[in-house]
Design a protein that fits this description.
This protein has 4 helices and 6 strands. It is an alpha+beta fold and 141 residues long. It has a 6-stranded antiparallel beta barrel with strand order 1-2-3-6-5-4. A hairpin with a 3-residue loop joins strand 2 and strand 3. The longest helix has 16 residues. The protein is globular.
């Protein structure tokens, strides 16, 4: 993803990450499908997510500007749902079935922002947590 313009405009520094998530792309152009993917990077204002799409259920060109309902299973066990908007979208050239989406969090309440901050703190403290969650994600594939 060419993030050079997006990176310069970001309010918060992104933390590199690998964390399993679920999400729905809410678009009038595509039926609503549920996807599993992972957060590639995250900040207090947005994230980069990656997912595999082998079946042609969505058109990459229709994702940009779409609302995305993101569901994150936190290390504490709670599930946090965030409404986001897709700002950047591209297929991952070396892996043509993978799609990368840059999302911006929208209308977050304080408790949701705190959940994201805690997730970022946990990442900095415990790398084994990330690998455990990654293994859970792979079992769902």
């Amino acid at each position: 993803m060419d993030d050079s313009k997006g990176i310069a405009n970001r309010q918060h520094e992104r933390s590199e990450f690998a964390y399993a998530v679920e999400f729905n792309i809410l678009s009038h152009k595509n039926p609503q499908y549920s996807f599993h993917g992972y957060i590639k990077n995250v900040s207090e204002s947005g994230a980069g997510i990656v997912f595999e799409e082998r079946y042609g259920r969505v058109n990459v060109n229709d994702i940009k500007g779409s609302k995305i309902k993101l569901i994150i299973a936190m290390p504490s066990g709670e599930r946090v749902t965030l409404m986001t908007i897709a700002r950047r979208v591209r297929k991952d050239a070396p892996k043509p079935y993978f799609i990368q989406v840059g999302i911006e969090f929208e209308d977050m309440e304080e408790w949701q922002l705190n959940a994201i901050k805690n997730l970022i703190r946990e990442k900095k403290k415990d790398h084994s947590m990330i690998w455990n969650l990654w293994e859970q994600y792979e079992r769902h594939l």
